[in-house]
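hey so u asked for the seq, here:
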Amino acid sequence: MSRENRTVAQSWASYKKSSLRRSAVGLIAASVCYAGFATPLAASSDPAPSIAVARAAVDEAQRSGAVKYAPVELNNARNKLNMAEEAARKRDKKQAVRLADEAAIDAKLAQTTAEAGKTEEAARAVEAGNAALEQEVNRPLQR
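ran it, structure tokens below
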């Protein structure tokens, strides 16, 4: 692999990592803003839909690999979901909706973190493959 190709490959890998991080930060910021606006509007309503959304988000985060890549964030989401369900049983609608919204946001964070972890792992595998190829190309021919 020529130096120019290696530089281009390194630049591309760096761009993809920074782009993924910007996307994750944007998702988190949007989720926080949504929760800030949605919670007061939904506070007087039935918490069941918010809890269902949070439960689905936690399930999706688990399927995305958050158990491996984002266990803390996933655990936070599960705990808030459990607290939301408890608040709903106690008929504290406002608290139940708020906790369910927070659980959904934490689950989305866990999912995004897991996806970033998978992407970084794949990038490392590609880099290792490129290094092996480069070593093979630079090896002297044996006759």
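Helices lie at 3-42, 48-63, 66-69, 71-89, 93-138. The chain is about 85% helix and 0% strand.
lmk if thats what u needed
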